Amino acid sequence: MEIAMGLEASGQQFIWVVRKGENYEKEEADWVPIGFEKRMKGWAPQVLILDHEAVGGFVTHCGWNSTLEAVTAGVPMVTWPMAAEQFYNEKFVTHILKIGVSVGVLQWSREGDGIKREAVEKAVSQIMVGEEAEEMRGRAKAVGEMGRRAVEEWGSSYSDFDALIEELRLHCL
């Protein structure tokens, strides 16, 4: 409910993918405002969404796959870690790469750590509106380009993976 209200209050257009549980119909009123789903209807695959030029930001739990997808797409992030290494990934995005803003989660939690709609609204606005957002978007695009070059033929990741395969081949034959 707090995520929904914060996203709506930010005034930004968004795509929100939520998996429906078996008790979805019964629980709907508990986690989204009445009429929210109808007002905000739509779905598309995450990688395709992130790669679209119209995407200005990504709210993420900071799982490594999602983080890499956003980084290589050159998209700034609102970080919302929940468990395990996600907190380290958040620090990497917000403090090292400086292409994200934390929503304020401080400890492991399945319930969102009590984050309120105002924190969601503020974080979304920070990556979408103003000079700081433009600077972050520029850094995100630059890091994304570096990531894409790394996996191209003869890029650093391509070459390292090729070297690993060759090393394994030498030891296995």
UniProtKB/TrEMBL annotation:
Recorded superkingdom: Eukaryota
Pfam families for this protein: UDPGT
Residues in coiled coil: none
One Gene Ontology term of the molecular function aspect: UDP-glucosyltransferase activity
CDD domains linked to this entry: GT1_Gtf-like
Annotated keywords: Glycosyltransferase, Transferase
SUPFAM superfamilies, per the entry: UDP-Glycosyltransferase/glycogen phosphorylase (SSF53756)
Family label: Belongs to the UDP-glycosyltransferase family.
PANTHER family linked to this entry: GLYCOSYLTRANSFERASE (PTHR48047), SCOPOLETIN GLUCOSYLTRANSFERASE-LIKE (PTHR48047:SF45)
Name of the protein described by the UniProt record: Uncharacterized protein
